[in-house]
Amino acid sequence: MAGLIAAGAEAKASPVAAASGEYRSATAVPEAWQAFGRQVQQKFEQQLAGDTDGARRIQDYLTRRGGAADAPALKLAVRAWVLSDGRVSRVEVDGMDDAGIRIELRALLMAGGVGTPPLEMLQPLHLRLSLRAKDRSREGK
Fold it and tell me: Rounded to whole angstroms, how far apart are CA atoms 108 and 7?
């Protein structure tokens, strides 16, 4: 698979409940929340695999940090808050040491709409992203 890999979407926590510490695992939430989590994951994957300047900078970073095809993926924990109009209003990333690339990643993920979240869906969404450099040997084939 060429491109960045993002996996493990889980929908949990809430705008109101975030302050109270309420949490629900992906398996303990309504199917509509799970489906929306998968939709957000797919949108993020599209943005990460895109040909924008930000996506290229993230790809270059992954290549520099050990972009061989068998190199371990960079595993990140991402929390995303989605407004009722589908815009991502906030993203927090854990697991990335490079502050500049973390800011780039946050900006990239906030750049596009992800769709309207289900009513009363708890936020933020918790996603696990596994990022790997593109296999450049397969490009153009």
Answer: 17
Peptide bond into 124 cis (omega under 30): yes
Q: Can you list the positions of beta strands (E) in 37-101?
A: 74-82, 88-94
Q: Is the pLDDT of residue 93 over 70?
A: yes
Evaluate whether 127 touches 29 at the Cβ level (below 8 Å).
Answer: no
Please answer whether residues 8 and 37 qualify as being in contact, where contact means their C-beta atoms are separated by less than 8 angstroms: no
The structure tokens listed for 19 are 């302050």
DSSP code for 123: S
DSSP state of 28: G
What local confidence, expressed as pLDDT, does residue 3 receive? Answer: 31
Q: How many CA atoms lie within 13 A of 3 on its CB side?
A: 15
